[in-house]
Amino acid sequence: MCFSVWKLALGVLALRNDSLLASAYDCVDEPLWKDSTYGVGCDFYATSDPGCKKFLDLGQIANCNSTCGNCDGLRVQEADPLDTSCSITDLCACFEGCSTTTLCPASDEAQACIIESVTADSSLPPAAGQPWLELRLASVEQVVGVEVRGSTTRYAKTITATSAEATGSAIFASIDSGRSLPANWEGGHPARVLFEQGPVKAQVLRLQPQSTTPASASSQLSELSARVIVKRCRINLGPQNSQEKCDDLKCRAYCYRTLSCEGAWVRYCEQQRDNLTEPSCDVRCSYAAASGLPLCLIVTMWALLIPLSLRAE
Fold first, then answer.
1. Residue 142 belongs to what H/E stretch?
2. Whole-Å CA distances, 300 to 31, 251, 272
3. Are 175 and 163 in contact (CB under 8 A)?
4. Where residue 188 falls among pLDDT bands split at 50, 70, 90?
5. What is the mean pLDDT of residues 275-288?
6. Model pTM?
7. What domains are defined for the chain?
């Protein structure tokens, strides 16, 4: 009898180990996933937040299993504190009253994206055997377009563009499905060309003249130059240490409670509290207001009410 039980237990353990091994083998990040707020993927979180413990969960915990250490699937997606019945404007007004101002989630300081024109880290102009202008950036950027120019008499009227995510890559993807993009309408002036498909994640761009002035310049337009139009988003890290995070939770809990908000706040607050390295954070996450009655008074009232109830019977 005991032998059969031991045999069954060993079988269960073997199945569990096989399951864990399979889980570890399949533990990979989703290569095509990008969060909907900033448009960044698992590679960004692997570099900026390994373990996925600093930034608000925008889907990376469920999609970046290897980066976030979620191979067993036990980490659940964080509740969204903005899933609430309260106005964000009212919440932000309340946040401003904290002794250390809590960042408003809808403010420019919390999340701001700017479009700017930058100079490539290096460029290779068109030359014999290389009909395109190659622009290399110092790092991977969200590229939304280019600003091209030529000389007064030699310039590109249309171009095509391709991109690669790394300087050493031999794989270049067509931008806007390889269609011709309008460039300079006259010589000597820059022209901004925005990609119809939206931001392209790239470190290398190749711009190839199609229609040029003069027409004979299309194969070697050495006068072609360009700046890169990039979209850069600032992601606020928020409070850094456990005490700051606890104070931040207390402030926001007070605001949600005072405004009688309903939604996912309690679950979010409890998740954040449980993740703090110091378990001494005494934040009260619930919506309900405290009774404010001392325990001794409650006990006294209870003791007085019992005889009355018995007398009524």
1. strand 133-149
2. 63, 34, 37
3. yes
4. confident
5. 78
6. 0.46
7. 21-78 (no CATH), 88-110+238-303 (no CATH), 113-235 (2.60.120.260)
